[in-house]
Amino acid sequence: MKIYRVNLDELKVTEELVKDTYSLLGGRGLTSQIILDEVDPACDALGKHNKLVIAPGLLSGTSAPSSGRVSVGAKSPLTGGIKESNSGGTVAQKIGKLGIKAIVIEGIPKSDDFYKLVVDKDGAKLEVCNDFVGKGNYETMESLLEEYGKHCSFMTIGPAGEFKLQAASIAISDPDHRPTRHCGRGGLGAVMGSKQLKAIIVNDEGTTPIPIHDKDKFRKAAKDFAKMLMDHPVSGGGLPKYGTAVLVNILNEAGGLPTKNFESGRFDKAGMISGETVSEKIEERGGKVTHACHPGCVIQCSQIYNDKDGNYLTSGFEYETIWAFGANSMISDIDVIAMLDRMCDDTGVDTIEIGNTIAVAMEGGVIEFGDTKGALNLLAEVFKGSPLGRIIGNGAGFTGKAFGVRRVPVVKNQAMPAYDPRAVKGQGVTYATTPMGADHTAGYAVTSNILGVGGTIDPLKKEGQLELSRNLQIATAAIDSTGFCLFVAFAVIDNPEALPKIVDMLNAMFNLELTGDDVTNLGISILKAELEFNAKAGFTKLDDRLPEYFYEDEFAPHNTTFDFTGGELDSVLKFD
Amino acid sequence: MKIYRVNLDELKVTEELVKDTYSLLGGRGLTSQIILDEVDPACDALGKHNKLVIAPGLLSGTSAPSSGRVSVGAKSPLTGGIKESNSGGTVAQKIGKLGIKAIVIEGIPKSDDFYKLVVDKDGAKLEVCNDFVGKGNYETMESLLEEYGKHCSFMTIGPAGEFKLQAASIAISDPDHRPTRHCGRGGLGAVMGSKQLKAIIVNDEGTTPIPIHDKDKFRKAAKDFAKMLMDHPVSGGGLPKYGTAVLVNILNEAGGLPTKNFESGRFDKAGMISGETVSEKIEERGGKVTHACHPGCVIQCSQIYNDKDGNYLTSGFEYETIWAFGANSMISDIDVIAMLDRMCDDTGVDTIEIGNTIAVAMEGGVIEFGDTKGALNLLAEVFKGSPLGRIIGNGAGFTGKAFGVRRVPVVKNQAMPAYDPRAVKGQGVTYATTPMGADHTAGYAVTSNILGVGGTIDPLKKEGQLELSRNLQIATAAIDSTGFCLFVAFAVIDNPEALPKIVDMLNAMFNLELTGDDVTNLGISILKAELEFNAKAGFTKLDDRLPEYFYEDEFAPHNTTFDFTGGELDSVLKFD
Fold first, then answer.
1. How far apart, in whole angstroms, are the C-alpha atoms of residue B282 and residue A252?
2. For a Cys staple, B395 with which of A44, B167, B257, B513, CB 3.0–4.6 Å?
């Protein structure tokens, strides 16, 4: 295994051995540790001292099911703290197969040139690629596919990343070489843009399988684990059938679907944007209801969504995206929402951040709630980089300041996902306390708050939420290091035999004798590294709070507020 | 003495007795203490929990020379910390004469209506004034003059304050009832705008002179002090003759005049925008070279600047304004700069913040450096509230993020004034450490660094700068509480008999036996209150640093960097 260090200042790539202390780290565990070790927490996130670290999970590239997540880490220009953003797509497996533990991208070019990084079995090299500047992710990936062939995966930025906008994402190619998977959160596309790196091409042709110490043990554990994923009603039922959008009706029913910029919890047109409706339209138009974002995924929650004429429109069309442009922006035309999703993918912006931003802009009077043409136009402005587009592309907090909006749903300046913290209180605890800024995946309390996974906790009450969020955050940090998709968590939470299978795979691969406790300790050590970085970056307890209106404005239909004290929130991630 | 509490939520004004602990506080000392006592440091600066506190200095309204400063305090939407911004103009004296210690403005109206507050000898009342919404400060003050008469002074916000933009100022009327004096820094106009308060009218008709315990002693001290001010070469010579713009040639000569967005320290066209040139044009066009911003000022550094046709164009045309739009934006046409000053006054934005912002926008490619039409257009956009105007009106930090600019000269998100911290290092120490964000007045080290006032300290070296900044910050906090203009400091620093005269005036007025040490202790206690607020608002040591490029990019012509360590900066305001 090796680490590639890519220096844009000197335009050279060096290969390094992996430090012993990094040998059992992967994904988020590795990106967060390298960022803590190498990046000055006080640095300008878009300056030459920040670094972008790309790391596949520990199991990515093996036959472990649904293990194709890639983590990207950096100091976030959006939050000012540490960020790990992970994504599916096909790149993690190829990086893993190439024996690359991490790619560390540092420095800023002395000229205005943009570059691409080409990685294959023979090494890694930088090349100028100014001809791609200004191009969207779809066009860029089409060109890359033509030039480098279908054995390659791509990581690219769109115009938003080039403009260094704080909502900019890094697109990851899906099995069809389309830019539908994203490291969306925290503006990591802007960090890549600040380094003038437009694209990374990863070609795993000619590689041999990843060495596994005990192949039989690994194969058995992987097979058992795949069955457990398929046997669980969420990962084996709801997700493959309806995609993540299955949650629209569920959250709406629960009164926790933030509607009209988090004004209330039910959208009267939820049925028009539900997972059921999406699946129906996909079937009618000859798309694909079930689709894997990377080979070897058994959950296959993605889809191919075609337009009215049966032509491909988008893929990776997620619940949070549909919610953000739908209920939260009061748009009920699912085809418009699909087009907005595609435009985000093409421009290279996070759909959660931008969907929230559109709703904030609507509240600020820039356009009306529900204005489909207006919303499409705002996305087009981001692509163009007009002044209005620069505002929108910098996210919800920025747009709220531009237009004097009081209700701006951000924590650490990152916009909240699709679960109101007053109606799904465990989720609110995660938003407040995760080192990542408002993030649902960091501790997905929707499980027992709403889905009945891992028992039942009343989403409207405080009881049990602090401990739930803490435990989920620890487990998630560990899972985010393995390469497994977070959606394996449903089975892991409900089936006591699932976690041992993950441990078996790790032990079989690396010749170890880890236990379940080691996994917990790994999660804790990752969180501690991230909290240490944030403290050194100037974060205080105040950064672990929700905006004041969540404590004051009652949220219909349950008329609850977010009522955790500062002391309660501060207890969640207090480690010795 | 009384305090008026103006509640915009309930639309009522109540009169309160002054607490004993506030009795010897005025100006900045009082605003900062009330903000610390009453405002939750974690609150949304533009939300209902922030308060706007207006307090004249302790001596404002008396015959003490040059004592007409008014302080306005709040949590700043620009910096996120405490803010005191003081200004000349005629309002402080009238508030003082009315026996008002402070006006505390709190709450936010339930409706969209805008209000005005009318204060006279009979009390204070709120009235709807929606007809003024959208109007510039010039038009607003003209209307108020017509309605309320020339005995009144005004405090108003322009469109920028209504839009709640972070560079929004509060305009204070000058003796000609024009909006040429401003509480400019820190976006306090946005706080006033968030409370939907468009104007404050202060009428002191019918008041009796402020009670003075020992009138003879007061009169003598005031007279002696006035002579000292007039005898000093800066306050009695350079400032009355050339205004503050006398500094253009001096800083340019010293290589400390930030040019082209702080790229280097000399502007080859400095002569075209110098105080000497300004005075010459004023003479030619029948303006006034010497002009007081309030009755009783013996320094009279203001002026009336007419256009080419001899018609009034602007007043209060300061060095920092001329520098920001001039050298820093590479504009050498002084008439354009005067027009930009007027547009800032009319729109209600801080010239230092906006001048810096224009330069940052130029660096970001929005317009070219030196583009006069472009700069005028950007100001017009702020008045209109277009998306581009919203970006510019939110200041340099915001604009830097919008356009991906690396070199953005801010501390605590507030833009730096007209002295480069690498070439006037004492000033850099003040920028970094004052609780106010980059602010020259908070500890004006230009005195001994450049002007030879209070001895001589090499501006390019570190020696003596930490202690100098500390002492100046303490003295300034005290002076800002008296109502005296900071320009009395030149005499106070150079003439050991001057401070005792200030102490005599305070003792004579309030029947006290203060000493010089008490003044120092007052300054320290104010700084401690401000630092306490900022710590509770989440500020850490990292907020007391300059942007990283000041440590790394050498500054011509002296090719110096800012080289104070964190520990050195942290020592400046360390009190027991």
1. 68
2. B167
Q: How far apart are CA B67 and CA B483, in angstroms?
A: 5
- Are the CB atoms for A119 and A201 separated by under 8 Å? yes
> Out of B49, B388, B545, whose CB is closest to A387?
B388
Which one-letter DSSP state was computed for residue A367? S
Please give the structure tokens belonging to residue B519.
Answer: 């003044």
Handedness of CA B209, B215, B218, B224 (dihedral sign): positive
Which of B44, B537, B548 comes nearest A47 by C-beta? Answer: B548
Helices (H), A236-371: 239-242, 247-254, 275-284, 319-325, 334-347, 351-363
Q: Which DSSP helix (H) or strand (E) runs through A36?
A: helix A27-38
ipTM: 0.95
Sign of the torsion angle spanned by Cα atoms A280, A282, A283, A284: positive
Distances (CA, A) of B99 to A294, A525, A534, B124: 75, 61, 49, 12
Closest CA to B96 of B495, B484, B544: B484
Torsion angle of the four alpha carbons B318, B319, B325, B328, in this order, in degrees rounded to the nearest 10: -160
Instruction: Classify residue B422 by its DSSP letter.
Output: T
Q: Which residues contact A445 (CB under 8 A, 6 or more apart)?
A: A424, A425, A426, A427, A429, A430, A457, A465, A468, A469, A472
From B564, B550, B565, select the one nearest B265 (Cα to Cα): B550
Contact A386 B387 (CB under 8 A): yes
Backbone angles phi, psi at A214, to 5 degrees: -125, 90
> How far apart, in whole angstroms, are the C-alpha atoms of residue A170 and residue A117?
14
Q: Radius of gyration (Cα) for chain B, nearest Å?
A: 22
Tokens 């236990």 locate to: A515
Q: What secondary structure letter does DSSP report for B272?
A: G
Q: Is the preceding omega at residue B421 within 30 degrees of 0, hence cis?
A: no
User: Could you tell me which of A202, A96, A95 has the C-alpha nearest to residue A148?
Assistant: A202
d(Cα B190, Cα A338) in Å, to the nearest integer?
Answer: 38
pLDDT digits (tens, 9 = 90+) for B165-224: 999 999 999 999 999 999 999 999 999 999 999 999 999 999 999 999 999 999 999 999
Helix (H) or strand (E) holding B302: strand B302-306
Cα B523 to chain centroid, rounded: 18
Contacts of A538 in chain B (CB under 8 A): 540, 542-543
Measure Cα distances from A310 to A286, A305, B33 in Å.
Answer: 6, 9, 67
Chain B stretch 421-480, residues whose beta carbon is closer than 8 A to a beta carbon of chain A: none
Using the beta-carbon criterion (under 8 Å), do A537 and B537 form an inter-chain contact?
no
Rounded Cα distance, B361 and B393, in Å:
12
| Residue with tokens 């108003």, as numbered in its chain | B156
All residues of chain A having their beta carbon less than 8 Å from the beta carbon of residue B44 are: 406, 547-548
CB B235 within 8 A of CB B491: yes
